[in-house]
Design a protein that fits this description.
Blueprint: H1 2-8, H2 12-42, H3 45-58, H4 64-89, H5 93-101, H6 114-135
Helix pairs in contact: 2-3, 2-6, 4-6
């Protein structure tokens, strides 16, 4: 993402902000939510209440299932959209390329890989853990 942005002439600060937001949403928030959910179950009542309150705040930002679904449906469309854009902008370059080489113009593979399934299982288990942690009451 960063290299493509630099190649297209995007300002450096924009790329740093986008990268920071992506790292925060994909890595930091799920890790923080996991640690807070575990703390809700294992700590004393006062820290547990604090962890639950923080978890209530960050729970709406845990959009990993939505992130998974957007990847699942967006990645397969990249090849078709890209080829269409190249064909429209270059008077059929992709069609000519496919006639000569009998291969696709773009080599973006839109198949679900093991990472997609891992992301789905991680997303669902995190949402279940956070949901149970939020509704669980200590007696």
């Amino acid at each position: 993402l960063y290299q493509r942005g630099v190649a297209s002439g995007t300002e450096q600060w924009v790329l740093i902000i986008l990268g920071s937001v992506l790292v925060f949403l994909v890595y930091v928030l799920p890790l923080l939510a996991t640690l807070l959910a575990i703390a809700v179950w294992t700590t004393d009542p006062v820290p547990s209440l604090f962890c639950r309150n923080v978890l209530w705040i960050i729970q709406p930002c845990l959009c990993s299932i939505i992130f998974y679904l957007s990847l699942q449906f967006a990645v397969p469309s990249f090849e078709a959209i890209g080829e269409y854009a190249i064909d429209m902008g270059s008077s059929g370059l992709c069609k000519k390329f496919e006639v000569v080489t009998s291969d696709t113009c773009l080599t973006i593979s839109g198949e679900p890989r093991i990472g997609f399934w891992f992301l789905l299982s991680q997303s669902m288990s995190l949402e279940i853990l956070v949901g149970l942690s939020l509704i669980w009451k200590r007696r």
